[in-house]
Structures are given as C-alpha cells and as structure tokens.
Amino acid sequence: MDLEEAVRELLDRQQIEDTLYRYASSIDDKDYPTLRSLFVDDAVGQYGDSPAIEGADEIVRWIDLATQDRAWQHHKLTVYHVDVDGDEARALTYHTSHQTTVHDRDTVIVIVARYRDVLRRMNASWKIADNRMEIGWIEERHAEQAAVR
C-alpha cells in the first residue's frame, strides 16, 4: 500500500465514523435537517423488530415520531469495524442510549444495541444507505428520590 492509498483509507474511515457519530448526535438534538442530510435519498432503515422503512424522508419521520416524548437523549456509539470497498462501506457500531421522557424525568430508558450500516460515497462525503439496529435489550431504571437532581 502506498502512502496516498493509506491516507485515503484513513480519511474514508474518519469520514464514515464522523457520519455515524453525527447520526447519533442529530437524533439526541432532534436536529432532523442534519439527520436527513446523512442519508442517501433511497436509504433503508430498520429499528429492532419494526418493519423496514424505505426512503430517507420516511426514516427521519419515523425517528421523529418515535422520539416525540423524549425530554433528553444520549446515544453513546463505538464504531468497531469499518470495511471500505470502493465507494461503499460497511460498519459495525455498538450503541448504548439513555433517554428520559417528558412525563417521567426520574426514569431513564436504557437501550443496548448494534448498528449494521452500509454507507455510500456521494461526491466528497459518506452517507448512510442502509441502517439496521439490532436491539439487545431495553430496560428502565428509576432514580432514588434522594439522588435525584
């Protein structure tokens, strides 16, 4: 591998990781214009046992509806693998999120999952073409009254 190829590979990996991290932070911030910009138009998404969703606009709409009652969200991602093959890449990302609702801020919903993504190079950036979330478990944790706030 020559230096130019090695640098390109590192840049691709960094750009892919940036896209995946921006995906999570955009959901946390409910920044749906930015979230939409991370997908190719014909993207497919599937979250847990929900049916597959076709089209970037529909994916963003689904995420918006699924998080309407969330008062606060924090998605922690760790990108484990990025395999680039030309203008397509596959990534495996581990995910843990903590979420509270507007109705019960003393209870946190914890979701542990894996994302298996396919990304596509579009001009000078990487966009999500296929976003699959495999949920390991979901639990609720309730705050002790003395420890709250």
Short description:
This protein has helices at 3-29, 32-37, 56-66, and strands at 39-47, 53-54, 70-85, 88-101, 104-122, 125-142. By secondary structure, the protein is an alpha+beta fold.
Number of helices: 3
Name the helicity range.
25-40%
Radius of gyration: 17 Å
Terminus-to-terminus distance: 54 Å
CATH topology, what is it called? Answer: Nuclear Transport Factor 2, Chain: A
Strand portion, in percent?
Answer: over 45%
Low-confidence spans: none
- CATH top level class name: Alpha Beta
Question: Can you characterise this structure?
Answer:
- The chain has a single domain, classed as Nuclear Transport Factor 2, Chain: A (Roll).
- By secondary structure, the protein is of the alpha+beta class.
- It contains 3 helices and 6 strands; from the N terminus they run ααββαββββ.
- The protein is 30% helix and 52% strand.
- It has a 6-stranded mixed beta sheet with strand order 2-1-6-5-4-3.
- The protein has helices spanning 3-29, 32-37, 56-66; strands at residues 39-47, 53-54, 70-85, 88-101, 104-122, 125-142.
- A hairpin with a 5-residue loop joins strand 1 (39-47) and strand 2.
